[in-house]
Design brief:
The structure holds two protein chains of two kinds. Chain A contains eleven helices and ten strands. Chain A is α+β, with helices and mostly antiparallel strands. Chain A has one domain. Chain A has a ten-stranded antiparallel beta barrel, surrounded by five helices. In chain B, the strands form two sheets. A six-stranded antiparallel sheet of chain B has the order 4-3-2-1-6-5, with no helix packed on it. Chain B is an alpha+beta fold. Chain B folds into two domains: 89 residues, PH-domain like (Roll); 216 residues, no CATH class. About 5% of the residues of chain B have low confidence. The chains are: A alpha+beta, B alpha+beta. The interface between A and B is large, with 64 and 54 residues.
Amino acid sequence: MKETIFNGSAGEYFKIWITNLFLTIITFGIYSAWAEVINKKYIYQNITIDGHRFDYVAKPIQILKGRAIGLMLLLLVGILSVFNPMLYVLSLIALFIATPWLINKSLSFRLRMTTYRGVSFDFRGNYKETFLYFMLLPILSIFTLFITLPLFQKFGAEYSINNYSFGQKTFKSKLNAKEFYKAYLFIGIVFFVISSLSGFIFYLFPYAGIVILPLSYITLIVSFSSIWTSIIRNHTFNNSELDGIATFDSKMDIVAYTKILFTNVLALLFSLGLAYPWVAIRNIKYLSNATSSDFNDGVDSVINNSIKNDSAVLDEVAGAFDVQL
Amino acid sequence: MKHAGIYYLANSTKYYLAELEVKDDSIKIFNVDSDKLIYKANVHELINEISIQGNSTLIRFPDGSSFIPDDPSLKWEWDSLSSKLIRKITNNLKSLVLIILLTPLFLFFALFYGMPFLSSEIANRVSQDSKEVISTNLLKKLEDEYFEESKIDYLEQEKLKKEFHKNLSDLNINSDNYRLMFYKSDIFGANAVALPDGTIVVTDQMISKLLNSPNLIMAILFHEVGHVEDNHGLSQIIQSLGVGLIITLIIGDAQGLSDALVGSGFVLVQQSFSRKMEVEADIFALESLKKLEMPVEDFSNALESIMDLDEDAYSPYKNYLSSHPHTKKRIELAKEYRQ
């Protein structure tokens, strides 16, 4: 088993991050494209497996162009929403139709800009299936009162992993819907316990509401996020492989991760955001430590087969709409 | 001098433990095991790479292959100017301290002064035609969701409209763009709303609270005219777009968790603008009363009659979340103004 090692330090990252933020502000946001590349490069380059580091290879100028175009499109939609409701509705419909394409493009961009040992990752999803798994099925699950939603999410996760690739090798994944249902069950139980507990305290001491309500809100969000990430990440990593050459292992612990996320949110709140670098480094350190992989000699002969950088601007426009899975 | 590191072939996971030698403008890579030369390049052919503080700096060769030295402190002469500059800034304690102090300060000014200024400048340049389009849409939405037909007597409505327009022309304000409308609204309660084009909506609930004192109604209307004259509504729309943009730029790629934080920060900033505008509109109303030689107490009396003062006293924290300044403070301001 090969450990994932993260060497980033909060102090070092803070220096880089605050300098980037400063330059972004005094350039009215133009520098944000460089800031994004530098921040990501710092993080990626500090993740190593088997003595080799990851890298983020996007060019700031591509990102800047993409953001500029994306921003103008969003602005246009914003202006339409005020001046011309008819065209606004039409543009929303167009956006809806374009969404699967946007998802594919931005995911593919993010992965292609990620390299390990000089070879890129990629996502090769197609319009039809992305539409089916990420839009149609989740909407249809309303008619089953969301009972089938976890099952559909399992399909979606399998679909995306099976279309991830590293060089010419594709990932393969066989997942179990049980784990997705388990995650929802845990979330449901935690929701019930925390909300009734905080409701009870609020009932006894109404004046404590100013503390209790935000605190329980944060606790809820943090524990949902921790439960989901831990269960689903462990399950998908442990049941995915890179076409005969690598297997993965994730050992996240819900309680430990909840503690990290919870203190992260408090640190962000009380530092008015200044603790962001520390928070980010802590989070990645935990995720790295929980992850290991095993691979054979096949990993030495992976080659890049997608040398297509021409659509980068288009991809970053897609990224500007921030479609996240 | 030779530097140990890893040499990666182009577009492949294949690599060699290697040593790099720089002599004048030429770069040579040797295989550590066999000591054989595996690659040769000229410094001027290198592909530009961003070097990151604290990490080994990758050298990318024209054929796509690359070399990563083991020593992270190793920096190259051919590094780009921007990389060198940033290294200088981050390594210099003075400049770092300066940045740490200036960044929050700049951010504060950008959010609380820059954006409000910029958005009111933009709002002031929007034509009356555009304002009418926006207001028509807004009014339609309000009519659909919150407003019902007014039960106020038609003659009473006409009387108020006439007096309102007369006051406007006495104040030397072009009254053509102004339009007074009456609606019943349970959700809005006793309230008045100004739309960007000069349409001012008054609720039945407010009229019935102030029916016996039309001067008090006028005082409230002057407050709304203040909003229209200073383009507050539009400024606010533009501000909310701008502030959202600034906040996402800063915490853009933070994890989903930060959404809640971004949201609450957004509300705080928005509400602070809003309170500032309310004060401006209050002052406008007081000045108008003065110009018309009406008693300035009319405004504080009107506030007292339509606001529920007890409810306002509930919590000190509410101050930061409220879109309006504390009613008691507004009344105090009005009383100070008299002197």
